[in-house]
Amino acid sequence: MQRFFHNVGYAVTGIIHAVKTQRHMKFHLVAAAVALTTGAACQLSRVEWIILILVIAMVIAAELLNTAVEAVVDLASPDRHPLAKAAKDTAAAAVLVTAVAAVVAGLLLFGPRIWEVVGGG
Ligand SMILES: Nc1ncnc2c1ncn2[C@@H]1O[C@H](COP(=O)(O)OP(=O)(O)OP(=O)(O)O)[C@@H](O)[C@H]1O
């Protein structure tokens, strides 16, 4: 049990490191807060909440993995190397894919509701 709490502590340390060092992570957290607040205002259904939470977790997990890849690459290859570039660019692409999916999911979830409020129908 003590080991479990130690591991949770290491994971929290990792999250704090990513938030402190990655400006994109700060942006993802602000976007997640906005999405959760909007979700509460829109009174999402249970399934919609599950989708929203999974999408947010997916983006943040991808950014955490990207941070880990960047750290390992910087450690293993301080000098420029095509493989280091491939690793960093591919990890960044993973974040981009999840972020685009999150934006599309957000538009599908909130778009019609916001459109209603704004007066489109
Ligand atoms: N060791 C390296 N060898 C070759 N190309 C690299 C190397 N390090 C970084 N790059 C290239 O420069 C880009 C920017 O690298 P950087 O280390 O600034 O990471 P980043 O993705 O911009 O992260 P952040 O903006 O969060 O600091 C990488 O995506 C990659 O294309």
Automatic annotation (TrEMBL):
Q: Name one Pfam family in it.
A: DAGK_prokar
The way this protein sits in the membrane is described as: Multi-pass membrane protein
Query: Which superkingdom?
Result: Bacteria
Q: Which CDD domains match?
A: UDPK_IM_like (cd14265)
Keyword vocabulary terms for this entry: ATP-binding, Cell membrane, Kinase, Lipid biosynthesis, Lipid metabolism, Membrane, Nucleotide-binding, Phospholipid biosynthesis, Phospholipid metabolism, Transferase, Transmembrane, Transmembrane helix
The protein, known as = Diacylglycerol kinase
**Principal place of residence:** membrane
Which spans are transmembrane here?
50-69, 90-111
What GO molecular function annotations does the UniProt record carry, in alphabetical order? kinase activity
Q: Which organism is it from?
A: Paenibacillus mendelii
Instruction: Indicate where this protein resides in the cell.
Output: Cell membrane
Q: Output the lineage of the source organism.
A: Bacteria, Bacillati, Bacillota, Bacilli, Bacillales
Q: What InterPro entries does the record tag this protein with?
A: DAGK, DAGK_sf, UDPK
What family name appears in the similarity comment? Answer: Belongs to the bacterial diacylglycerol kinase family.
